[in-house]
Amino acid sequence: MTVGANPPPPRAVVLDTNVVLDLLLFADPSVQPLRTALDSGQVAWLATGAMRDELQRVLAYPALQQPMATRGLQAAQVLARFDAACQLQLVAPACAIRCSDRDDQLFIDLAVAHRAWLLSKDKAVLRLRRRLAQCAVPVQSAFRPAA
Questions:
Q1: Which of 71, 102, 137, 143 has the CB geometry, 3.0–4.6 Å to 132, for a possible disulfide?
Q2: Would you call 6 exposed, middle or buried from its count of C-beta atoms within 10 A (0-12, 13-18, 19+)?
Q3: CA nearest neighbour of 45 among 67, 13, 75
Q4: Residue 127: how many CB atoms within 10 A of its CB?
């Protein structure tokens, strides 16, 4: 009996709310590599209940009602996609790296706690790229598996 090589464990990834919207609502072509990596098990999306709560709050914004209607979606369906795609974690302890945008701190804390990739379009998060790299947290605005 030949023993094959086990596939590497999935790499953890934390997605900020804008990336989640691109993935679950807008089906933005720029997130297709991320979708493929999630579907193949190459990456595991980590999130917390607080992140889900933020998504629920954002989905109620008037500006998102038309895009949801155009795609035949309701907030509950987007939240169900979130629930099916991510692995819920406990809220991570606060890390030493502080973000100027307090709303983004929960993403940073979770990424640092799990040494996960952090995907964000937020300028305040992107400015922390070098400091987070010292904690083994690559920060990217778009998913690039070679990171």
A1: 137
A2: exposed
A3: 13
A4: 14
Dmax over CA atoms of the chain, in Å, equals 60
Alpha carbon of residue 100 to chain centroid: 19
What is the C-alpha separation between 100 and 103, in angstroms, rounded? 9
The region, left, alpha or beta by phi > 0 then psi within -120 to 50, assigned to residue 137 is: beta
The kind and range of the H/E element at 48 are strand 43-48
Cβ atoms 129, 136 nearer than 8 A: no
143 Cβ partners below 8 Å, 6+ apart? 13, 31, 33, 34, 37, 43, 117, 119
Q: Which residues, other chains included, contact 17 with Cβ-Cβ below 8 Å and sequence gap of 6+?
A: 51, 54, 55, 58
Answer whether 119's CB lies under 8 Å from 143's CB. yes
Summarize pLDDT for 35-83 with one digit per residue, the tens: 999 999 999 999 999 999 999 999 999 999 999 999 999 999 999 999 9
Residue 74, both tokens: 């309701």
Query: Looking at the chain, how many residues does it have?
Result: 147
